Automatic annotation (TrEMBL):
Keywords: ATP-binding, Nucleotide-binding, Transport
SMART domains for this protein: AAA
Family to which this protein belongs: Belongs to the ABC transporter superfamily.
GO molecular function: ATP binding; ATP hydrolysis activity
Organism annotation: Liquorilactobacillus aquaticus DSM 21051
ABC transporter domain ranges (all copies): 5-231
InterPro entries: AAA+_ATPase, ABC_transporter-like_ATP-bd, ABC_transporter-like_CS, P-loop_NTPase
Protein name: ABC transporter-like protein
Amino acid sequence: MDDILTVKKLNKSFGKNKVLKDVSFNVQPGKIVGLVGPNGAGKTTIMKAILGLFDFQSGSILIDGKDVSITKHQALSEVGALIEYPGIYPFLTGMQHLELFADNAAESKKDIQNIIDELQIGSYINRKAKAYSLGMKQKLGIALALLNNPKFVILDEPMNGLDPKATKELRNLILSLAKKGTTFLISSHILSELEKLVDEIVVIDKGKIIKQTSMEALSDSNGNYLILKTSDDTQAREILTAEGIELEKSDKLKIKKTSDEQLTGLIQLMSNHNINIVDVQHEQNDLETSLLDLLDNDQVKE
Ligand SMILES: Nc1ncnc2c1ncn2[C@@H]1O[C@H](COP(=O)(O)OP(=O)(O)OP(=O)(O)O)[C@@H](O)[C@H]1O
């Protein structure tokens, strides 16, 4: 399927500070893609460039096959976005914001009501935005991003300021929209939340993309471990080491999982030395651990 977003060799500097270095990645329709990386890595800059808000020195951005730049915005007509702090007018009500940004007032009445219901913002939507809390403003910003049924939605730190209930509601809303075909590019530092949502992640560090991978492949490639509990862990550790089986740094007998047959071999090995395996646990790296590993490796390479 053709990409909804293709970013190719994007370079961007602020003065002498090169903040995006040959950034390339793609997003396929209907996917939820997470853009992750440390503070200052370049996530917001990428999102702003995709939205035609920043110029760039070289490279290209295509949405649905059409070029986007600071002067070419046509492809953005079907894109919804929330970037940094939602731009909200303090003296307008939430409802006035939604009406102001709706494409077609008559047709949008039902859409506006749906969004209000889904995000549960009805109790304060007719109050002036100056009286909104951080989370209320954030929810209004998300409502504005989702208005007009965009095909592609870009959300920069959408969970900022949301309480756990609102975070869960937002997650469910994003998942249900994605099921109906909406595509999402989402940045967030709340990795435990992001991993419940995304199909793929793009990892950026110091302006360079260091990985684009499906979540499935990420946990398969570096995140599966077996933890053995035996009748004699001290002796078992010696036997495993003597066999050249590498143990992870842990006070438990933790071994990187390499194949489905590996456990049978370990049981056989222990049994040959009259040691019983009394328990086996499977452990999988969470997104945070996988990401920290990736960033550590990136530092080693430099
Ligand atoms: N308008 C600007 N003028 C000059 N430098 C900028 C500007 N915007 C961003 N930068 C610089 O670009 C780099 C990338 O910033 P960016 O906001 O894209 O990072 P980020 O990955 O979104 O970080 P965070 O997770 O902290 O939000 C930083 O070094 C930042 O100081």
